[in-house]
Amino acid sequence: MTEKDLNDILNNDSIERLPEKFKEFEISFGKKVILTGKQKDEIVSLLNKLESEELCRISLGKLYEELITSKERKQLGQVYTPKSIVKYMIDEGIKEEYIIKNPYFKVIDPACGGGYFLIEAYEKIKSIMENNYEKIIYENPAIKMQLDEGIHEFILRNNIWGTDVDEFAVYMTTISLLLKDTTSNSFKLNIYKKDILLDDEKNLLNSLSDKSSLNDIKFDLVIGNPPYIGHKKISKIYRQKLIHYYYDVFSDKADISFCFVKKGHDLLKEDGRLILITSRYFIESPSGKFLRKFIKNNFTIESLIDFNGYKIFRGIGVSPLIIKCIKGKMDDTNFDVYKLKKKLNQKNEFDIANEAIYERFKVKSIELADKGWIFINPLEKLIFEKIDSQGDYKLKDICESYQGIITGCDNAFIIDAEKIDEGNLERDILKPWIKNSYIQKYTKTKVDKYILYTDLIDNINDYPNTLKHILPYKERLEKRRECIKGIRKWYELQWGRNLEVFKSPKIIFPFKSETNRFMIDYDNVFCSADVYIIKIKDMFLNEITMEYLTGFLNSSIFEFYFKTVAKKVGDNMYDFYPNKLMELNIKIGEDVNFVSERVKKIISYYNDINRLLKDKVDNRKIEELQIKIIEEIEKIDKYFFTLYKLEHNEVETIKNRLK
Known about the structure:
EC number: 2.1.1.72
Distance between the termini: 50 Å
Largest sheet: 9 strands, mixed
Domain Type II methyltransferase M.TaqI-like: 158-313
Number of helices: 30
Catalytic activity: a 2'-deoxyadenosine in DNA + S-adenosyl-L-methionine = an N(6)-methyl-2'-deoxyadenosine in DNA + S-adenosyl-L-homocysteine + H(+)
Pfam family, one: TaqI_C
InterPro entries: DNA_methylase_N6_adenine_CS, MethylTrfase_TaqI-like_dom, N4_N6_ade-DNA_methylase, SAM-dependent_MTases_sf, TaqI_C
């Protein structure tokens, strides 16, 4: 990308045509590269050479968003907020009556990025001041002279603040705001290059920034989309600083966005508002416990929009929520929750009033638990509590859970069935192998892979064919952490687990799934780390069977029960991690055999289907068996609905929720 190419981009009148050029720009530098300071200076230099009229034709926020590389975006934790959501948040935070009463209403975005929130805030405040000039002067007569000198300069001096760690972002935001009125002279803005969480203030350009500190300023509104940076991407030194300064919200495995909630509280006046769009991760994760407690004890929540696991950010696997709250705790308050019911498409503009897309209900603040916030409507809440209260045991009381094997290099240890004979591999260490995608409800697809369970080998030279197969991977295998520490021999599995776990019947299920997929393995299969295992404790084998437990885990009642508290990790994907699953309760009915026999029939029918598929028999027989499976599943559901004494409307609510 040459200087001329950049000039062509910046002078292009058609914003719609710019993104394609930006893609070429990113390809030129590579997605794994961060723009150097020199490259950014070159862009800034080109922008500075343009006339104001030319700059006004360019969306500098969009320019910043497109020019910053994928790696830098990830490093900074930046996610770009859709314009309709930015507008909604600003409309919620800046009302006409606020500005009329207090023309010095102060707004800050502590991670301003391309400046979208601050630009929208500027436009909103300017519109209010222009349309309510007489009322403002009547309420605040001393302000007339300042407003008459220019609303543009007044807003930028008295209403708008922003900070960001990225110098390029600060430059773009500063210029975008200055260009809102090209007739005014340049003056100092309250936009700083600064790590607002920790660092001392540092100015970008003497001509465009203010040397005054933020420490003595209290704001009416803190708003924005703070960066999402997980604990694994934060340096150890920086993480320790965050733990020291933000100990009441930030733990060792927390996200950096947690700290912006506490910082927002510090920046606000009493009764000031915090409005953030941030990852919904904190409402349910163990590491969010301290943040949940902090919000509950230091804010009064006014509303919360839960996007319910659906991803609304372009190219980012994060599902957010929007939280709006007032600094200061008021007891016994209710707040509105708007919960997204289905995935948004391009035609769905952000509109929480659309009842076909968003479900609305009230939540009592006092019911927010430190261990996790659950947002469900009142009827679903009653059903959940009814199911939960009737449990005889927690699953962890009657079962043990285990994770599958981590090989450390699947190419070395996982073998296709047809390659066993080709390589003449020693069969005594070969074990049948499945991954999560093989597991279905009550059954599994054909097992066509095997694992070289090399943990059984005392001397690798006794297995020459296995050695020949894995030798090409030796260098990579030796670099595994456990091998470097001397915990594993180079040819052993990274985490082979306890062999006895796999050598007897067990319930297995995938780590992530859209629906409940539990099956009984009678064939002693070994499984990957994205598969979990449940085994009933010996002392409960006379009270409950694996078949009964599997029937319960696959039932509609348990799916509803689990999904109410489960972590959503995709549009319709749930995390079946045992730390949540094993905390749920199970009721053991008197007729355990009824469910057990139904499950055995289902498994038998699936086995028949698999044989018919192998023999390529008439599909009508397969369809007949599938109908029988559905009938047995319905009988199991009816049994558990009756066992838990659910009313007809409660059963219908569960069925509608699971559609």
